[in-house]
Amino acid sequence: MRKSVIIFLLLACNVVLAAMLVLGMMKNRERWAWPHVTIIRELGFNEQQADAYRVLLGEHRDRVNPMLVRLREEKEKYFTAAARGAAPLAFNQINRTQNQLDSLLGAHLAAVYKLCTPAQQQRFDEAVRKVVAQVPR
Description:
Layout: H1 2-27, H2 35-43, H3 47-83, H4 90-115, H5 118-134
């Protein structure tokens, strides 16, 4: 009898904790939004702007994704060599690729800025700060 009461209480606690987690996520759903959704919402893009933004985003991803794969490979080579005590030249290539990625991001943000109306441009900087905070590092 005592074991079944303890098991029931533990099960009830798990259900309550799961419900709290789900309700907390729903309450803070902005925090869980994808960066492009945050941009569209925060800037108040109309459908035409949102469509143009999605096109820009697709083009940006097409340029960036291969570079991210290359960066990951370069880092694997570097850390493998570094773990063996070598001082590989791959570190310089990692820096070059990261700089290229940063330049592409800057160009992408400038293109998005051009989509904005003057009123939206005032909110652009704040929205970018929120998006950067959401991006995993």
